[in-house]
Amino acid sequence: MKLLAVAVDGRGLVDPAEPVFRADDEALLRGSSAFETLPVYGGRPFELERHLQRLRGSLSTLGLPPLGEGAAESLVATLVAEVEGDFVLRLYRTEASLVGTAAPIPAGIEELRARGLRMHVVETGLPAALVAGAKATSYALALAALREAERNGRDDALFVADGIVLEAPMSNIWWRRGDILSTPTTGPGVLPGVTRAVAWELAREQGLEVREDRFPLTELEGADEVFTTSSVREVMPVVSLDDAVVGAGNPGAVAARLQEALRVRSQR
Asked: What's the pTM?
């Protein structure tokens, strides 16, 4: 995907084609880096402070240098001033660099939302508790799972550890039975998503009960609807898990309501 703009702490805007990471950076050698992804709507970064708070936590967990005072906010402001309209903003913190990028929102998201995701269940071990909650750039497992899902004719993957539901490679998973929404508790294997937190608040505002726990995959069988939440795709309905149809095989009503409410929140 072609970048719209790139900014580097201490250098400001740079040519998107110009190298910004050192060849000896541990981010390249061992994946030792953290990042955050958030949408920008009409010049307004969505839930910026929550993303920065999680980034600070990731840096502490991974033993990376902390953010300089106002450094991340300055990069965000630079990119917002440079790029008009809606876009995806990413912040990367490595041992040596703090970099911000702006990229177009991926095409096809609304079409995918209209038909719903077909998910492929991937059984995996439980990730180490030492890095729980850290949003790191080491995405080898996530990308391998997505490729496996695509080989099986599906759109996304769902991680399961010993039959316990975790998350998707780049999103949190939810399901509804009646007026009760369920989502796996955060911890090893389940990132505390910012959009997850916003969806929780919006669901409570709409009178839904929300619960979190360690749930077996069988919990999703017979659910009225299933959906994922993430910063880029926002609220995305799920219509099947492997060969099993979810709900009636169509996007659910609550996912649609939460998506609409999230967009309203983003305009505040």
From this structure: 0.95
